[in-house]
Each structure stands twice: as C-alpha cells, then as structure tokens.
Amino acid sequence: xxxxxxxxxxxxxxxxxxxxxxxxxxxxxxxxxxxxxxxxxxxxxxxxxxxxxxxxxxxxxxxxxxxxxxxxxxxxxxxxxxxxxxxxxxxxxxxxxxxxxxxxxxxxxxxxxxxxxxxxxxxxxxxxxxxxxxxxxxxxxxxxxxxxxxxxxxxxxxxxxxxxxxxxxxxxxxxxxxxxxxxxxxxxxxxxxxxxxxxxxxxxxxxxxxxxxxxxxxxxxxxxxxxxxxxxxxxxxxxxxxxxxxxxxxxxxxxxxxxxxxxxxxxxxxxxxxxxxxxxxxxxxxxxxxxxxxxxxxxxxxxxxxxxxxxxxxxxxxxxxxxxxxxxxxxxxxxxxxxxxxxxxxxxxxxxxxxxxxxxxxxxxxxxxxxxxxxxxxxxxxxxxxxxxxxxxxxxxxxxxxxxxxxxxxxxxxxxxxxxxxxxxxxxxxxxxxxxxxxxxxxxxxxxxxxxxxxxxxxxxxxxxxxxxxxxxxxxxxxxxxxxxxxxxxxxxxxxxxxxxxxxxxxxxxxxxxxxxxxxxxxxxxxxxxxxxxxxxxxxxxxxxxxxxxxxxxxxxxxxxxxxxxxxxxxxxxxxxxxxxxxxxxxxxxxxxxxxxxxxxxxx
Length: 604
Ligand code: ADP
Ligand code: MG
Ligand code: ZN
Prior knowledge:
Layout: H1 2-29, E1 32-36, H2 38-46, E2 52-56, E3 59-64, E4 67-72, H3 79-85, E5 97-100, H4 106-136, E6 149-151, H5 167-181, H6 184-187, E7 196-200, H7 207-218, E8 222-226, H8 227-230, H9 237-251, E9 255-260, H10 277-293, E10 300-306, E11 324-327, H11 333-344, H12 355-360, H13 367-383, H14 391-403, E12 406-407, H15 414-433, E13 440-444, E14 447-448, E15 454-457, H16 468-478, H17 480-489, H18 497-512, H19 544-571, H20 573-586, E16 588-590, H21 591-600
Parallel strand pairs: 1-4, 2-5, 7-10, 7-11, 8-9, 9-10
Antiparallel strand pairs: 2-3, 3-4, 6-8, 12-14, 13-15, 13-16
The structure holds adenosine-5'-diphosphate, magnesium ion and zinc ion (ZN).
Zinc ion binds near residues 423, 427, 481, 496 and 499.
C-alpha cells in the first residue's frame, strides 16, 4: 500500500516539474513585460520609441525590442486627450500605429483558465493512476473517503489451508462459502441466505485471517473496514463511511464486507458514557440501516469481528443481522503445533525441530502469539549470525513473547537484587511444596517487560478448569514472594504489589464468580470493564451486608494464604537461602537445574 501510494506521489511530482518546465520555456519566449508609469509611457511615446501602441480600455501597451511596456491610464481620458495633456503633437507621432483592442483579453483568460485547469488535470491523473492500481493490482488500497481496503481474489490468496486448527469454525463457514459461490442452490428452495456472521474471540485468534480465508475459498473480493476508523472527531463522518463501504461492496457482489473491531461502534447505546456517543450511535444506526436495506438477492455477506461480544448492542444481534455467531477458541496443543508449523515454513530452520515440545510450552498462546514466537526465534538466530533457526531459538523466544524483552541494561543495586532473589525463590519453593500446582519452568531475576523478576510456571497440559484446591494453592504461591521477603529481610517491599493485586482479584472471584466460599454457591459475575458503559447503569445485584462480608472474607483468605506460604518457607529456610544465592550468582535457574536441587534437598 505504501509503495503504491508513494509511486502516485512521484507521478504528481513528475507532472508538476514538467508543467513548470513548459511554463518557464513558454514564458521565456514571451516578451518581458514591464509596468511603467503613465508619465514614462507618454515620454516614450513622445520620443517616438514605439512602432505601435495598443489600447485596451484604460491600459496602454507597446512593444519595443521584445519588451512589452504597459501603463495604466488613471486619468480616464481618451488617448488623444492624453496627447494633449502631455503636450504631444499628433503630427510628431504619425508613424506610431495606434490600435484599440477588444476589451476581453483572451491571453489572460487562457492563462487564468490554465491555472484553474492544471490542478484539476493533476488530480484527474492522480485518481486515474489510483484507479488503475486498484483494478490491476490486488494489493490493499485505502480510499481517502471510506477508508475501505479491498482485496481481490488472486493467486496468492488466503484459503482455509492457511488457517491451522479451528476445524469446527471452518466447518460452519464452509456454508457461507457455498452461499457466495452458488446462491441459487439455496434461494431456489426458498431459503434465506444469512447476511451477517459475527466472529468472536480473543485478539490474535485468527478472526481476520479466517474471514479472509472465506473470501479466498469463495473467490470473491474482500472489503475490510475497521470499527475504530469510524470513530472520528466529526459527527457524520462514520455514517457516511459506512454508506460508501456498503455501496462499494454491493457493487462488487458477490463479496465479503469485513467489519473489524465492531465493538468500537456497536457498543450498547444509551449509557451516556465514553464520549463521542452521538457519532458512534449514528454510525451504528447506519450499519443497521444498511444491513436491513440490501435485499436478499444481493449476494453480500457481512462478517464482523470482536473480542468483546458482551458489550455489543443487542440490535446488532437481532435476526437478519449478525445472527450467525462463531466463537474462535484458543488453540489446543495439537493446533498450536499446526500453527507453529505453518509459520515456520516461512523461515529457514534446521531439520529436526520438535514442534510438539514448543507447543507444549505455549499453553494459552493465540495464533498471533505463536507467529511471534517463530518470528522472534528467527530474529534471535539472525542476531547470533546463525544460518538456520534452531529449536532453542524458538524456545527462548517463548518468554520474550510472554513477558516482553529481557532488560539486561536496567541496573539494579545489590540490595534490590537480593530482594528479588529471595522473592522469586519464595514463589518457586512454595509452588513445588504444594500439590496440584504447575511445575516451575524457570526462575529469573532479570527484568522482562514490566516484571522485575519472574518465576515461570507452565501447566503440563492444557487446562480449562481449576479445582478449588488448585485455585487456593495458586493463591498461596502468589504470596511466596511476599512471605520470603518478610521472613528473610524482616519486611515486605513494594515489589509484591502486582502479586497482591492478582491475589485480591483471585480471592474476589473465588467468592463472587465461582461460589466456592462459605458465603454460598452463588455468582455475581460482573463485567471487568465497567468503563465500557454497560455495567454502570445496571442494577445492583447484592446487598450492602453481602458486599461487606465479601470484603471481609477476601482479607481473611489472603491473610491465610500468606500464613501458609510463610509456613512452607519457615520449614525450608535452608533451601530458600540456597536458591536465592544461586539466583544472585547466575540470575537464571532453568527447570532441569531446579529439579536437580530439589532432588538433593527435598521440600518439606
Ligand atoms: P484477530 O483478527 O483474531 O485478532 P488475526 O486474524 O489478525 O487475529 O491473526 C493474527 C495473525 O496470527 C494472523 O495473521 C496469522 O498469521 C496468525 N494466526 C492466528 N490464528 C492462526 C491460525 N489458526 N493458523 C495460522 N495462523 C494464525
Ligand atoms: Mg483482527
Ligand atoms: Zn512475585
């Protein structure tokens, strides 16, 4: 897209330069023009300097030696009165030809017309080349007006083959492909073809990819607009963009119009929060109007994507609109392996790479995360001047994707390092001491992303549920750092703030979402993002008393968890010292080494 546009800009420059050249050439061949005073002009007339004088209304013109003299007759009298006034005897200037010209100056009209026409010509040319690039090229192109990007079906199109896993999702979409390919098959039977499909899933799970694959499979053009692009400063812009996007897509039907991040506009209306409300409402209304407006014979399918289906306006979900809904799940280990392999094809790797192992270490990763693992691995290999990317490069890049890049440059004092070492050792030991916790893969006191240090625990297999015990044990592990600092250093540091935040949140969920506490098997599931609007105006679902008990219970739960973590570490002080010292020495302990230490010094 960028190269295409800059090419057009080049064209414009070329034209401007060309025009400038022509102009300067032309103007050189024109006589030089000199505006002089009436006095001077009459003086020259008197001296018989001119052969010919042209008079247009009150302008006097004469040409001598390729210089055109012009003077304005401000006296508003006839030329002969002027001669009198300047005491010129008309007998003396008999050989000067005096001519009265028409009052319209075609030359100047031409030049003014040229000035107006020229930019228009340039614009015309610009749009022409853009139009051509649009027809002849499959690359994305942004219309200035609708911000719609169009992808034509072409050779290197994306199909279902490029989407790993997501089997059920694909199966649901195959139907859409056949609607686009042969609608008669359905309409002949009187079946209504669905208009809208809503893809829901976390960011990076492949919503955009899948939508494009549907277009690729059906061989139809794919129009892409994004909800966030509609949210503009000016009211009405969004709605007009929607209109032109739909018009554009309808013209090319059969086609797919993809509205990405539809939650940016399709949020529940009427909460009075968030600003830009009018604009969003108008845009949303326009989408609804457009979706209801085109008849079922227009073979246009709208696919929308969102990662916040909970905030969508219910009007969007009504029958005849986005009534097909497909949830894209986070890939399991088999699918992760397949996704890794698809993206690894693009980089040069050594032969024997165990993708199952990499997949095993990346539970919870989305397709986009896995793609970055491959890319980061390749970058790492290149940085180390390797010819081929190896398995260790990929394994190492997992943490980078998970936590952000390692920050070796950030300087910590010895004292801070000491705190970090005991803190992380505390987490690791508590995690190994308790049953039903995920194994420790790595302990590090190097900062990464936002974390000052980290203890990486990765489940052995994909988990979808947690038992009550697992939940509580996780809570205790969270306090491992805080407990270690208190025991060894006498007091906690601010480094535990993130752990505490997570722990409090977990305790609250334990009570109000999963109903696992003594307050009863009850759920008051609230939306986390109150600022998005929906929740604030909804009615309060529990009493002051209950709310008070919840708060009290949270404090009780976290305090108990801290005590348990302290108990574990009191019983394993030697081990705590040992691991902390090892961390201070080498900064990082990998799983193998950690397991070895535990074998020699079993946790109590
Ligand atoms: P979303 O739109 O859901 O945020 P995208 O479709 O933009 O996610 O996915 C981002 C990238 O992640 C894709 O370009 C693709 O390279 C990769 N990806 C995601 N899911 C898959 C998958 N199932 N198979 C292959 N690649 C995937
Ligand atoms: Mg996307
Ligand atoms: Zn911690």
